[in-house]
């Protein structure tokens, strides 16, 4: 198996590692960097539990090789806030009960964070579209949508 050197900026820190050519980004984050907030779900790109931001865009880290992230900026759930405080999206997920089992939460929060960075005042329909790549088996999405709308500072839909 071929090995290659990669340098990836993860949550503001540069990491250089030798990786196998077939190492998935999700495995690099979890196994090499011990950033286990990024979850492994379906490993097919269908569930969104492994969503991270790659150069500010939400992507399924189970579909990307670590080699493809070489020289890029990765943000995981551990880096969504640059302080010891929760981000506003994380706070609203807690406040609105948008987390039940919590498995989808990191990916959902990453998608919501990207959505609000691009569109600070989305409609409820835009929120639904923004999280459409993230599956949740517990909440029915209502509280997730409310939490994201609250994080945007807007009125909460009924």
TrEMBL record:
UniProt cross-references to PROSITE patterns, sorted A to Z: 2FE2S_FER_1, 2FE2S_FER_2
Keyword Iron found: yes
Superkingdom: Bacteria
2Fe-2S ferredoxin-type domain mapped to chain residues: 4-80
A Pfam family recorded for this sequence: Fer2
UniProt entry keywords in alphabetical sequence: 2Fe-2S, Iron, Iron-sulfur, Metal-binding, Oxidoreductase
Matching InterPro entries: 2Fe-2S-bd (IPR002888), 2Fe-2S-bd_dom_sf (IPR036884), 2Fe-2S_ferredoxin-like_sf (IPR036010), 2Fe-2S_ferredoxin-type (IPR001041), 2Fe2S_fd_BS (IPR006058), Beta-grasp_dom_sf (IPR012675), Diverse_Oxidoreductases (IPR051452)
GO molecular function annotations of the record: 2 iron, 2 sulfur cluster binding; metal ion binding; oxidoreductase activity
Pathway annotation from the record: Alkaloid degradation; nicotine degradation
Protein name per its UniProtKB record: (2Fe-2S)-binding protein
């Amino acid at each position: 198996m071929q090995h290659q050197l990669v340098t990836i900026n993860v949550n503001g820190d540069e990491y250089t590692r030798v990786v196998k050519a077939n190492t998935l980004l999700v495995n690099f984050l979890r196994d090499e960097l011990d950033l286990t907030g990024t979850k492994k779900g379906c490993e097919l790109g269908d569930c969104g539990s492994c969503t991270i931001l790659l150069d500010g865009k939400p992507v399924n880290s189970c579909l990307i090789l670590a080699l493809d992230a070489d020289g890029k900026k990765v943000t995981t759930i551990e880096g969504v806030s640059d302080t010891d405080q929760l981000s506003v999206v994380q706070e609203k997920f807690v406040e609105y009960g948008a987390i039940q089992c919590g498995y989808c939460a990191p990916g959902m929060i990453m998608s919501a964070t990207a959505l609000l960075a691009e569109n600070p005042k989305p409609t409820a329909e835009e929120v639904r579209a923004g999280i459409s790549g993230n599956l949740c088996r517990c909440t029915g999405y209502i509280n997730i949508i409310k939490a994201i709308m609250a994080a945007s500072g807007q009125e909460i839909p009924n």
